[in-house]
Design a protein that fits this description.
Layout (H helix, E strand, L loop, with lengths): L1 H19 L3 H24 L6 H14 L6 E3 L1 H8 L6 E2 L3 E6 L2 E7 L4 H5 L6 E5 L2 E2 L5 H8 L1 E2 L3 E7 L7 E6 L8 E6 L3 E6 L6 H13 L6 E5 L8 H9 L6 E7 L6 E4 L10 E6 L6 H11 L4 E4 L7 E7 L5 E10 L15 E2 L15 H11 L1
Parallel strand pairs: 11-12, 12-15, 15-16, 16-19
Antiparallel strand pairs: 1-18, 2-7, 3-4, 4-5, 5-6, 5-8, 8-9, 10-11, 13-14, 13-18, 17-18
Length: 381
């Protein structure tokens, strides 16, 4: 088994060397690593106290390579890939959280609005260390997500570590079918058009455009708030479209990838949908990816006032690439760059005015929402 695996690795590397122009010294170093890896596998087979499932060991090795690249790349076995593609149709439910992998544990990017996780008090930046009685350490992101899924109405216990809290927090949550309402809107203080965007799906831009048209019929509307807090992102095309609503010209975002022909720049078309009126954008640690593109571009163009907390820092694009074994890999294929040329990755977008959540009772668009209240006072003042 080990010899066959070693031969496969050598063949793969031969192809890699001759298509990526690896230097001879690097080639020698990689072959030495292969020898060490083969030796480790041999020691495991001979010395490890329990029987080793060779197939699972190989899956773990593949996943380890991918997860060493960044928190967003991962391997999906055929079973996990099929599970990801399956339409739930009410049969399965979840907690309503967007997650990534960091330092071997699951990190919450965003709890979705009105989701079971949000209602229970899970916050962006929390680390999930245990799911029921299962330790997360050592599990892949896909495996952990699969454990969290289950029939609607069933309970799950998650143990969380939160910065600033000495003790672990335990949440008992009932799974629900997750339905995401992308756009919500209302008029605040009789003069502010408030739009909350919770994800960037294929209809988000059109929905926002319709909401703005409705607001413009009201002559009392003087300014706008675009709320991107706890928005984990979505389609790049929608981030570009929505940013374009508020600026007349200039670059919105650029993408850079290994293949030069896939690197692109995106520019605004003429026309400001709100006619130059003041706009405030609300962000927090749960604002990621497409949210950061919109907030960052509007900040770079000095078109909006950014209020809240530093965003997540996910400035990369992932593709799902199917494999011959009917599994797949999720692989980072390009990165976003703001008009200023800055990367979002691991840095995020910093607000013009930093306002942190004041209490654990904090809920969006309620009396406890001190970030929104500050924005309204600023606009009215």
């Amino acid at each position: 088994m080990i010899k066959k695996f070693r031969v496969c690795i050598v063949l793969i590397l031969f192809f890699f060397f001759h298509t990526n122009l690896v230097s001879s010294s690097e080639e020698d170093d990689i072959y030495k690593k292969i020898d060490i890896f083969s030796e480790v596998l041999d020691k495991i087979n001979k010395e490890f106290v329990d029987e080793v499932n060779q197939s699972e060991a190989m899956d773990a090795a593949i996943n380890g390579v991918l997860q060493s690249l960044d928190p967003y790349s991962a391997y999906m076995t055929p079973e996990l890939y099929e599970s990801m593609q399956t339409e739930t149709s009410g049969e399965f439910g979840g907690l309503g959280i967007e997650v990534s992998m960091e330092a071997g544990v699951i990190k919450v990017i965003t709890p979705m609005d009105d989701s079971p996780a949000a209602e229970a008090g899970v916050k962006a930046g929390d680390y999930i260390v245990r799911i029921n009685d299962i330790q997360v350490q050592g599990k892949s992101l896909s495996e952990a997500v699969d454990i969290m899924r289950g029939p609607v109405g069933t309970d799950i216990e998650i143990t969380i570590r939160r910065r600033g809290e000495r003790k672990a927090l335990i949440f008992n949550i009932t799974r629900e079918k997750i339905k995401v309402a992308s756009v919500k809107s209302e008029i605040l203080d009789n003069q502010t058009g408030y739009i909350r965007l919770t994800s960037f799906n294929e209809n988000s831009g059109d929905q926002i455009k319709d909401k703005i048209k409705e607001f413009k019929k009201n002559e009392k509307i003087k300014n706008y708030i675009l709320d991107l807090r706890n928005n984990p992102g979505g389609l790049l095309s929608q981030a570009i479209k929505i940013t374009d609503f508020f600026i007349d010209s200039g670059e919105i975002v650029s993408t850079k990838s290994k293949r030069k022909y896939e690197s692109r720049k995106f520019f605004a078309k003429q026309g400001d949908l709100i006619d130059g009126n003041t706009i405030v954008v609300l962000i927090n640690y749960g604002s990621a990816s497409a949210s950061e593109i919109v907030a960052g571009a509007l900040k770079d163009h000095k078109r909006a006032i950014i209020i809240g907390e530093n965003s997540y820092g996910k400035g990369s694009v992932q593709s799902i690439i199917p494999l011959k074994n009917k599994g797949a890999i999720r692989l980072t294929v390009s990165k976003y760059y703001l008009p200023s040329g800055k990367s979002i990755s691991e840095i995020g977008v910093s607000p013009d005015i930093e306002i942190a959540e004041e209490s654990d009772d904090f809920r969006f668009n309620t009396d406890t929402d001190n970030q929104l209240q500050f924005a309204l006072k600023l606009l009215n003042g």
